Fold these 3 entries.
Entry 1:
Amino acid sequence: MDNKKITLSYGSGGRLTHQLIKNLFLKKFGNTISKKLDDSAVLPSINSNFKLVYTTDSYVVKPIFFPGGDIGKLSICGTVNDLSVMGAKPLYISVSAIIEEGLEIEKLEKIVSSIAETSKKAGVQIVCGDTKVVEKGAADEIFLTTSGIGILNKKLNISGHNAKTGDVIIISGTIADHGIAILNARQNLELEGKLFSDVAPLNNLVERMLKAGEIHTMRDPTRGGLATTLNEIAEQSNIGIEIIEEKIPVQKSTKSACNLLGLDPLYIANEGKLVAIVKETDAKKILFAMKNHPLGKNAQIIGKVMSKPKGVYLKTKIGGVRILQMLESDQLPRIC
């Protein structure tokens, strides 16, 4: 790493985040499981039918309450989704809270209630946790850390390394809604339109997709957005990806906000969407299953996997081709 100090861009989910992970964390304690860099770790088999899948994440979103959700709902959905996109069934979650001195009890009660409600909706149990209180100014109201465990059928092998030439790329719905909702709430921009976070647990949607056809790769495009997630997959699988601009769903209000602020929706975070790379012959069946679920009603086939050139390419509305690089710097820090 060239920088002497950590900047906010190291938390963007983009190139600097990947450099930090690869050049420091993996270098010091990487192993065959963690080096895969998937959303969750697939652990050794527990019996002849299933493997354990494990994930952990921290949530430092600002503001802690936003249109469509809050830090409590976000923490559960994020963990459930990281397990789900590996093909696993989420079962158990731990929740740890670092609370800043001075946080109103009423706010804490709302967050805890949101955690409980979201867990019930997702069908997972909160089984353990921890609580710490730090001095005023040492945190930002509340930070949450969650870990989750699920089980994975041994017959499934879903990974960022498994995308194959000819595969079809499907997005489950409109992109950039979460990041724009956070920005609007944080800066009190009062932008027009329905700007709500898309935060939601995706495990039920994934279950339907798995029954419909063969899925090689799934990811939830959070920090760094769709473009960065596709770059990660292209690097892991050593393939090329072409997506079609006019096929990518973006809500009108979200697109208007992006145009006004000079932001690219392809690089803005989502918290209730997934991107799936599926066997070509099963693509229509999987898309049909998605569209018959509330969280997949706006799903679209947006592109394909090719052997070369490597990397990610956007076929624009005017017929040109644009290279999509990984996010270089943070468009909007602390969105999850």
Note: The chain has eight helices and 14 strands.
Entry 2:
Amino acid sequence: MQALAENIYYQDSYAGVILGAVTFPGGTLLIDTPLRAEDARTWKAALLTQSRGTHRLITVLDIHADRTLGNRAIEYPIITHNNTALAYKERTTIFKGQHIKTGAEWEHYPEVNGTRWERPNITFSTTLSLQWGGPEIRIEHHPGPTSGASWVHIPEHRIVFIGDAVCNNQPPFIARADLDVWHETLNLLSSRAFADYTIISGRSGFITIDDIREQRKFLKSISGRLETVSKRKNQMEEIDKMIPSLLEKLDYPPEFNEFYSQRLYYGLHEYFARTYLQDSILNEAEE
């Protein structure tokens, strides 16, 4: 656990995603949770030694299983955006995993299968503000990676936790994404409004302005290529051919090649089907 400012921490040693925590006089806010139940309980115990006040809350920055499976082991009330709460309703009561590989972290940990989902208790639409005796904590809606993606923003300390908005040197998760909206979110993050901020990605830790620009270029490349593919025959084969050249744009250890290829394969096919094939079906129905 590393301190970013007084009573504001991040943790990058657990499976799943990179975590944050705020321990102000009024209470403790956990930003996402570890994937594995035993790690979640360890993280909870570590924060109890730092905690102050009586309130205990978790905020999850989107619906991804890597950041939501551990909620059950901590058993604090959960804050999410309205759209993330709606996505929970699509899930079965118990997590059974998937037969299709998605390139997610949870796939390395079969013990998470059988976890019962802990559903949200508090939702918001645009911004939720916590006043716990220290600087204001804002939980803000910033869609793109998912429709309910959120950030935790602490303006006084110029710190922001951005979830999956930027994944440095690894492919982003795009299966549930809106790439046009995501692009606008990255424009905001790279603007003067967040100049000199400490920016923490849920996948990559500390993020620079160059990382944000590279993410924006990568997503623009995906968007342009998929638009081209949508006008061709053999669309699924064309999508598969995109994967090696997209991965060449990223700098990562060679042992992750298969894992990241699978992440892109799943994400590109899901995004394309949702964005282009559904539109095509609807257009045919209208005709």
Note: The CA atoms of residues 23 and 49 lie 10 Å apart.
Entry 3:
Amino acid sequence: MAQRKTGIALVALAAALWGTDALFRRGLALELPAATVVFFEHLVLVVVTAPWLIRSYQKVLRLGVGDWVALVLIGAGASATATILFTAAFSYGDPNTPLLLQKLQPLVAVLGARLLLGEALLPRFWLFLATGLGGAYLIAFPDPLQVSVSQLAPALLAVGAAALWGMGTVLGRRMSGSLEFRELTAWRFAIGMPVAGLIWLLQPGAPVGVTGGQDVLAIVVLALVPGLGAMLLYYRGLSRTPASAATVAELAFPLSAAMVNYLAFGAVLTFSQWVGVLVLAGAITWMSLLGARDPEEIGVVAQTSLATGS
């Protein structure tokens, strides 16, 4: 019981640290191209995780083609491209929408995992998905009846990032039998760094580097605190915590993000956005609680069950 309580506390702490992301990323996104920020963020992470890269080098060389494809997609898609999309969303000035729309990620991960594992989705699953998307829509637009292009752009960027991160989770599960988590994290950053660098170099007029002392400090803190530090805390806590309890603890993320944005940037949520937060968080929590007992309760049926008629 003590370990479970500690695990829940670690997951909640990690989620709260994720909520501080806008403190560093928003200012950088307003001053620098998204790919520039993400490249140097990955550079810091590669330097820090280099021991795990070296330790697992021989293991990675022995991976099969399928694992290599998954690893490249994790690094290029979930790490580099998704983070560039997420950072670009902040350049529109709204610190709340990109962060809160990341609550879509578990829904994307569940959908992707079921499709890739060949499991059938019953009608009730689509009810969960529709509820989650409805909550995300309310979060994205302060006035859900008045949607402008300027509001749509950051929302689409954030949803694209959530989708790539969700699929990265699915592929990461596939890789869990080949690489332990710290090794997978290190290779994710190592593969993502040159991809982010290529995107950065291809951008016309992109700055040669980051010269301002404040920007350098912000990138380092961004990489180490809401990045690597929070991720390691999260997986440490998750190893001691049932998935249903972890999902509830993760609700510290939108609450922390909303509080940080209110105190640091004066950003407030409208009534309909708070409704969206509650709807989306409620859908994911309900889904996790039911799914922990029996996947069929959330509309997921394994292929083996269909084949045997059970």
Note: The chain has one domain: 2-308.
